[in-house]
Amino acid sequence: MNKSIPLFKVFMPESTIDSLKETIMSGYLAEGDKSKEFTNLVQEFIGNPFISTVNSCTMALNIAYRLSGVVDGSEVITTPLTSIASNVPVLSLGGKVVWADVEKDTGMIDPNQIEGLVTERTKAVLVLHKDGDLAKINEIKEICKKYRIKLIEDSAHAFGAKYKGVKIGNTADYSCFSFQAIKHITCADGGALSCANEADYKIAKKLKWFGSDKSTKGEGNPWLKDIDVLGYKGDLNNVMATIGISQMEYVDEIISKYNKNGNYYNKLLSDIPGLNILTRIEDCYPVYWAYTVIVEERDALIRKLNEKGISSMQIHPRNDKWTIFKDSMKELPGVDYFNERELSLPCGWWVDKSDIEWISSIIKEGW
User: Fold this and answer.
1) In CATH terms, is domain 15-248 a member of 1.10.10.10?
2) pTM over 0.85
3) What burial class does residue 292 get, using C-beta atoms within 10 Å of its C-beta: 0-12 exposed, 13-18 middle, 19+ buried?
């Protein structure tokens, strides 16, 4: 009898039930003390005091693009091998996505492709840390510094990851995290934006709440003050924060499990005909939101694994072919190659060593 192993599974400690009941019956459900407590925990975990929690990673990305100066006619250099959430905010702000090709052995944006795409309209480069692996941030950061454009990390898959000893959230102008249902840490939905400086952080807090900094509520009615920036309704409420607080009690254990599982796959899946392990940067700590490999005849392997009860798929197919991006279409041979071969395997806290050995043995049989 086959064992069912999902690609994603929600971590939810039983202690969350009592905490939620307390919050729900408190009479205050909006952004408040629980939201502040969760934000503090995230700031401490990342090691950056300039982090604002929001209601989704998409909102964090919207704010990051706003802080980067993206307006009508602006350009953002980005990758199509990501979630729709990474790129749609650019269009919503009147900007244009400019596709950079990806490295065939990582699926992430190729630093060598970026500089030739920079124009006077370029405001930012968007980098996805794909599936918890790390992109080549140092190389990209040098290009952004040279042309005085902002570096934005889509870190939805990379909560707790470290780039050469530095936690993501301290490595770019802005890092955007996700606490959506199936991420490492969840608030049912939610996100966070880390900023590199206090000035941007203060503006971010305004942008997430109609242009008013809600943290100054104790200073009197915030609506009696001037609103000088057009903001969103993007705050993280007490209910979502309560779920997040219960998760953060286990964050180190959870993140470590993802990392160890990914490293074990690295060991077991080497030297298999028709399958290549991704190239990874040395001295980094990936968190393997999913374990992604490059597979020839991918669909055949997916069918075999699914027949055994093992969930596997390409999580985020390319989005540059969608009609909404028709004005940005171009030839991207690296994307073509990776998009046709990318496959992700279960790697989370619910996967144990014997599961990885079983999955690997099935793969080694061929497909």
Assistant:
1) no
2) yes
3) buried
Handedness of CA 162, 168, 173, 175 (dihedral sign): positive
CB 330 within 8 A of CB 321: no
Question: pLDDT per residue over 259-298, tens digit each?
Answer: 999 999 999 999 999 999 999 999 999 999 999 999 999 9
Q: Strands 150-154 and 122-128, how do they pair?
A: parallel
Q: Is 107 exposed, middle or buried (0-12, 13-18, 19+ CB in 10 A)?
A: buried
- Cα 90–88–71 angle (5° rounding)? 20
CB 274 within 8 A of CB 295: yes
Tokens standing for 13? 């400690």
Token pair for 18: 């009592």
Chain mean position to CA 53: 14
Nearest to 335 by CA among 310, 350, 307, 316: 316
pLDDT (0 to 100) of residue 217 = 66
Contact 52, 198 (CB under 8 A): no
> Tokens 């039983």 identify what position?
14
Residues of the chain with CATH 3.40.640.10: 15-248
Contact between residue 284 and residue 168 where contact means Cβ atoms under 8 Å apart = no
- Report the pLDDT value the prediction gives residue 225, as an integer from 0 to 100: 86
Q: pLDDT at position 218, please?
A: 67
pLDDT of residue 352: 97
Architecture of domain 252-364: Alpha-Beta Complex (3.90)
Backbone angles phi, psi at 147, to 5 degrees: -105, 5
Instruction: In the chain, list all ranges with CATH 3.90.1150.10.
Output: 252-364
Matching residue, tokens 């629980």: 34
Between helices 15-24 and 238-248, what is the axis angle to 10°?
Answer: 160
Structural contact between residues 314 and 344, judged by C-beta atoms closer than 8 angstroms: yes
> What is the crossing angle of helices 353-364 and 298-307, to 10°?
130
